[in-house]
Amino acid sequence: LQSQGITIQHVFEALENNNQNTGGAYIEKGPTVLYIRSEGLIGSIEDIENITIKNDSGTPLFIRDVADITIGSAVRYGAMTYNDEGEVAGGVVMMLKGANSNKVIKEVKKRIEGISKTLPEGVIIEPFLDRTKMVNNAITTVETNLLEGALIVVFVLVLFLGNLRAGLLVASVIPLSMLFAVAMMNAFGVSGNLMSLGALDFGLIVDGAVIIVEAVMHQLSHSNKFNAVSRLSQKQMDEEVQKSSGKMMNSAIFGQVIILVVYLPILTLQGIEGKMFKPMAQTVSFALLGAFLLSLTYIPMMSTLFLSKKIKHKKNLSDKVMERLERVYQATLAKALRIPKSILAITLSLFVLAIFTLSRLGGEFIPALEEGDFAVDTRVLTGSNLNTTIENTTKAAHILKTRFPEVEKVVTKIGSGEVPTDPMPIEASDMMVILKDKKKWTSAKTFNELAEKMSEALKDIPGITAGFQYPVQMRFNELMTGARQDVVVKIFGENMDSLAAYAGTLGRIVNTVDGATDLYVEPVAGLPQIIIEYNRGAIAQYNLNIADINRVINAAFAGQTAGRVYEGEKHFDLVVRLTPEKRKDLKDVQNLLIPTPGGNQIPLWQLADVSIKDGPNQIQREDAKRRIVVGFNVRGRDVQSIVSELKQKVDAQMKFSTGYYTTYGGAFENLNAATQRLTIAVPISLLLIFILLYFAFGSVKQGLLIYSAIPLSAIGGIFFLAFRGMPFSISAGVGFIALFGIAVL
Q1: Which of 68, 321, 375, 493 shows the smallest number of beta carbons within 10 Å?
Q2: pTM of the predicted structure, to 2 decimals
Q3: Which domains can be identified in the chain, with CATH numbers?
């Protein structure tokens, strides 16, 4: 280029000007027209080679004289590897919002079968992360729980009602109310899943029906009107059912209305917690509404037709069981009534102890779902090239595959793909560790234990950090806070150096908190860069401007697209840039020739100071403010207590300059938001329950007596949470809310 007195810009313009089609309207020829069209698009490498850049004295200078024309590839910013076997091509299937995941995955698998038949020999498509397994497990769990729950309820009904017909009649409310609930779910767009169907309580659904049927049976067995007959006529049966149902209808109605009122606070939840728990409350409400309508209409009607019209029957197993239970209860009640003060003292003591235990449980948003696989957020040193990242992640995959027999395969996605659905820097990667069935594990018994051992093993690779989570959990965290860790501390301020210093100090404090693992301090500096600092005086002397110089630099090293080359329906960018041997080090940048308006060329070092310096890796902003992230995962401890301890240590050990401050984010943030909303909605719901009790009994004293069961009912739940070592969560809170309604039945 220099010897011929031309620049990269001349080459670029020659290519751009010789790769065009055009239309020239048309000419008339007799009764028809002839359309004019030129065909000047490049079709081959030979076409490119024969393009003229300039022609001096009849001697043309072709592209082939100053450049190598080859089929190349775009600059890579990512890669994907399989186990320790090398690189593969990968893809992600994205589901449209509102679509059915199982249906989509089935259709995708059908398409894959069709595509596989057209692939070259030796090329296969192998899914490495299939959520069907987790979804099917959830569906199986729901189906099993619903079936087992229904069978248990039927068994208990038949046993304690002492009448097969009565038990089956009450049990028939279950499928009918479920059909009503499913119809309402379809009408309101509520999908059937683990959350929406898993909370259905058949005991609550049949409660109103039990009250009505039991009242009918009691009326028939204790009525003195029919001592002279052994069997009722249909008319007599209708009258007795109407009389007994009318007496107990208020109890049945108020009981089910109270349960419906209890679920109102859950419907007030917003954000992610609302998305998760609202469908549950809606489904339960639909089922209860269906059961309520059935109790008012279907149960009394069917009682007249289906229940036995015989007045007397022999004692059966149920009668004997109930008599024995009644004797035990009467004896226990008699003893309790003799020591009322002691009973009251014990109850209050247990309640106070339960409240104290609750304050020590800690808290988390929702219990972690064991998804069956690991997603490992892996990073190498800032500024590492793609080959270095591939090498280190391949070593990591080799360690996991060879040392842990639990690992089935490891697929690693590095940097950003050609279609960057999940862009990352080159030094970052997502390592998907697909595990075998838990029954085949030998290295560990729990996911947390296995994650700890794997994390320790990966420390053998210098300069690599790894954070172990579940795939959906990691995306869930990223959706909530923009970071992948369970807990994220964001430091806001103006100066990046100050932010980095604060983040380093905070990271050291995090390491002193028990239960905080997989520390991640967002790298904002330390990225080696070739910095070009322009000398504006020199630029003015040569009558240049910075925009022209930047274009030359960009074309030389990044490459510029001078058009497209078409091959049938395919098209490829025609890129102009320096050869690889001219893009290796600092001197190549310093010696880059810049054309001047006078036709001369001068090296870049005469116009700017070109040097290697550490620059910012990234500058993140949130709400128009600079920020840096310090994140960590939580193992073996609840999130709320960890954040509380961390806040105390940060307040004691760190002092921030004016304009710098921190925010704490993560799953616990949703816990706090949901808790704050429930602290308003739950008291309102409890007040409504008391009002209903007052209207049901017409007495404040009797209403308060029954109402006292609500706080006392939580004692057992709190103690069992402590016994299982489980912190308080929104899931547990929703369970307690449902319990409050059951407690007053």
Answers
A1: 68
A2: 0.72
A3: 8-66 (3.30.2090.10), 78-94+372-469 (3.30.70.1430), 136-316 (1.20.1640.10)
